[in-house]
Amino acid sequence: MLFDTHAHLDEDAFSQDTDEVLARAVASGVTTMLAVATTVESSRATIALAARFPNVFASVGIHPNYAVQAKPGDWEAIEELASSPKVIAIGETGLDRYWDHTPFDVQLDYFRRQIELAGRRDVPFIVHCRESEPDVVAVLREMAGAGQLKGIMHSFCGGRATLDAALELGLHISFAGMLTFKKNVELRELTKTIPLNRLLIETDSPYLAPQPNRGKRNEPAFVRHTAECLAEVLGQTLDEIGTITTANARRLFGLSDVLG
Ligand code: NI
């Protein structure tokens, strides 16, 4: 039983074969997926997917690389869409100094707004962090104040300091296909220091497929390979890691009662 906590199912890469992709996911043991949005249009699309497929849930939000394109009214639309049925997270949000598409102060503004909105709705926010670990940690600390946050470090590939700060602030840590890449020895070592109840798995489909599918279009069925890798590193079985990460996701997203 696996839960893919981050898949861009609304992207063009899936427009021709969504049904087949979701059928392969189920056949591979992926019982639940979170379709993650990047813009207002994408937020409407993830909500539509969640309405169409019982095992798909939705996030709404504006990705840091798309914040520059946000039009007047877009933020208000996100706030409204956040109360749609099956919306269980806000994002993806965060900071990106690698692509640098959006002026950094605009990225910071949208990051703070989405953390605040997630807090107001009592759902987790999803953090994208690329070449901006100290900045992300600073915003998380600022927004947490003396308290804790409900959020996810998505496709985590950061270092020790960022991991420790995120855990201390209450965040969950989600691993994607990069965990399986041969060179990422240190990342695999870091997983051993994370409390089991904070671990999540994801694909970040259609990007960065795990081994042995690296280079292909990624899809939710492949989250199994990341789960297998995590199981091996942690000395657990695939079943155990599936049970642990799925229970974590259900608890975090408030789905324990919904899904039974
Ligand atoms: Ni993503």
Could you outline the blueprint of secondary structure elements for this entry?
Elements: E1 2-7, H1 18-27, E2 30-35, H2 40-52, E3 56-60, H3 74-81, E4 87-96, H4 104-121, E5 125-130, H5 133-144, E6 151-153, H6 160-168, E7 172-175, H7 185-191, E8 199-201, H8 223-234, H9 238-252, H10 256-259
The structure holds nickel (II) ion.
Please describe what this structure looks like.
The protein has 260 residues and is an alpha/beta fold. It has a single domain (2-259), classed as Metal-dependent hydrolases (TIM Barrel), CATH 3.20.20.140. Helix content is 42%, strand content 17%. It has ten helices and eight strands. An eight-stranded parallel sheet has the order 1-2-3-4-5-6-7-8. It is globular, with a radius of gyration of 17 Å.
